[in-house]
From TrEMBL:
Coiled coil: none annotated. It comes from Mycobacterium triplex. Residues 8-97 form the Mycothiol-dependent maleylpyruvate isomerase metal-binding domain. This is Putative Actinobacterial protein. InterPro entries: DinB/YfiT-like, Maleyloyr_isom, MDMPI_metal-binding. GO terms for molecular function: metal ion binding.
Length: 211
């Protein structure tokens, strides 16, 4: 069984090592995550591990209950205060001992969040996925099986026959087929239309309409 706690720890270690090789200019570039630079995506990962629940609630009150707006505000504020190297140090420390909301989120949802945001950065920089395929498969299994109030991947996958071309993974359904690399499938299910051109099958148009 692919344990989510061990998978998250191993992935965070690998992610931190990869991120050390990103330049200052690359951190400043836009990510695939709407409205965020790569630097702000990194800040979001730190917030997910360490921000106090009260800080999230206060920000949501300022934004009429919008979690997305609060999330954006918190990420931008932290990125303005902490450089990428500092944030990476924070991320490594918090991965070992989460605080605040980082102690509440299910590990499998955090793994999906971290993998998707890594892809937001690396794909935006014109690089391929460096996430091990078994890790992406674990994320895909969570996406299609576990309802997520923040990322409606299961709703996007509903009724579609999904097939990974680089892994022994599929999601069987009676509807049209979508095939492609596991990381591209996961990225699209997470709401990133960037990878749609890399997918094929008669279900791609349906999946595109659900973005």
């Amino acid at each position: 069984m692919f344990g989510s706690a061990n998978a998250l720890r191993d992935n965070d270690t690998r992610l931190a090592e990869l991120a050390r090789g990103i330049s200052a200019a690359q951190w400043a570039r836009p990510s695939l995550c709407a409205e965020w630079t790569n630097h702000e995506v990194l800040a979001h990962l730190v917030i997910g591990y360490g921000v106090a629940l009260s800080a999230v609630a206060t920000s949501m009150l300022r934004h009429r209950g919008s979690f997305d707006a609060a999330n954006t505000e918190l990420a931008r504020a932290l990125a303005a205060q902490r450089g990428p190297d500092q944030l990476l140090d924070d991320f490594v420390a918090l991965a070992r001992r989460p605080r605040g909301i980082g102690r509440l989120f299910p590990r499998r949802l955090l793994l999906g969040d971290h993998v998707m945001h890594e892809l937001d950065i690396t794909y935006a920089l014109g690089k391929g996925s460096a996430v091990p395929v078994p890790t992406v498969v674990a994320v895909l299994n969570t996406q299609v099986r576990v309802p997520n109030p923040f990322v409606p991947a299961a709703a996007r996958a509903r009724g579609l026959n999904l097939l990974a071309t680089d892994a022994d993974w599929s999601h069987q359904a009676d509807g049209p087929t979508v095939a492609g690399q596991a990381a591209h499938l996961a990225s699209v299910l997470a709401g990133r239309p960037w990878a749609l051109p890399y997918l094929r099958g008669d279900g791609v148009a349906v999946l595109s309409s659900r973005m």
